Amino acid sequence: MADLALAVIIALVIGLLLVATVVVRTVWIVPQARARNVERFGRYRKTLQPGLNVIVPFVDRVKPLIDLREQVVAFQGQPVITEDNVVVHIDTVLFFQVTDPRAADYEIVDYIKAIEQLTATQLRNVIGTLDLEATLSSRDRINTALRGVLDDASGKWGIRVTRVEIKAIEPPQSIKDAMEKQMRAEREKRATILQAEGVRQSRILTAEGEKQGAILQAEGARQAAILKAEGEAKAIEQVFTSIHENDPDPKLLAYQYLQTLPKLAAGEGNTFWVIPGEMTSALRAVSAAFGGQTEEAERGHSRPAVKKEPATPVPEPRPGAVEGPDEQAALREHTPPFELAPGRVNAATDDPLRAP
């Protein structure tokens, strides 16, 4: 009995294991954005979709998972020769997505390696038509050309290339040094031009400022001169009106006349000045005002008038001629001893003499 019970238990365990194995091989759970190809007797039967799937155990064979999400693959630098015979190393990044699991599994052995080799080949074709400068500045053009070619070639593999990006372009070190020197020279050139433009603009603004300042200064001087002239005119008008309203006597006028005479000789460029003919009248008026009038009042009679003799005109010297002794003697006879400017005014007769 014990042996029979043990045999039943062993058979039960084996049955449970068989059932579990059948269940495991019959029911397949596929994650989201994944796919599995199923083969029956070595031939493709179907593709398992995400979720719960049931197959025939021991008849159908389930292949490995295929990722349907967009994938990114970075390829190492590929040596490429440009049109101007410069060898550059280009690193590329490829974005692709499996759209047909059956084609990706049965049309190509290793689609990632195939895409890498295809990318390198097409990259050489595209870069070979561009020079170094165009290669460095035309990344968008290169990306578009590569994407179009790779998408067409990988379409039959069940793969859609969504994007191709150039990660880095590494020219030789000698080319880098030359480019750096060129860039430095360009920047120095632009700095020199900007500095010259700044100096030019500064000078223009300075000249404009000086011009405006000179104009404003001239306007200010003009306004000041106008105001000063108006002020002097009003002052003269007030003085003239005051003098005529107050009716000053000759004594005050003679005194003011004498005070004005030193101002005539106060200029720095005045080497001589001329006393007008009315000077003698002013002197007599002052003398009469301060002393002469008192003496005449005490004497009881007025000072007899002196009859003025007509002055003998001095012969005008000929231009360029030298005066002789007789002419000089005649000139001395007609020149009073108190004359400040000889040959200008005869103070004794109040007659002006002609200047030589």
Instruction: Note the total helix count.
Output: 9
Order of helices and strands: HEEEEEEEEHHHHEHHHHEE
N-to-C span? 179 Å
Low-confidence stretches: 292-325, 330-356
Structural class: alpha+beta
C-alpha geometry: rod-shaped
Compact overview of the structure:
This protein has nine helices and eleven strands. By secondary structure, it is of the alpha+beta class. The protein is rod-shaped, with a radius of gyration of 63 Å.
Descriptive report:
53% of the residues lie in helices and 19% in strands. It contains 9 helices and 11 strands. Helix 3 crosses helix 5 (139-154) and helix 7 (250-264) packs antiparallel against helix 8 (279-299). The longest helix is centred in the middle third of the chain and has 74 residues, at 173-246. The radius of gyration is 63 Å and the shape is rod-shaped.
Defining traits:
alpha+beta, 53% helix, disordered C terminus, 356 residues, 9 helices, 3-stranded antiparallel beta sheet
How are the SSEs ordered, and which strands pair?
Elements: H1 2-26, E1 27-30, E2 34-40, E3 43-48, E4 51-54, E5 60-62, E6 66-67, E7 70-81, E8 87-98, H2 101-106, H3 111-127, H4 132-137, H5 139-154, E9 159-170, H6 173-246, H7 250-264, H8 279-299, H9 325-333, E10 345-346, E11 351-352
Antiparallel strand pairs: 1-4, 2-3, 2-5, 2-6, 7-8, 8-9, 10-11
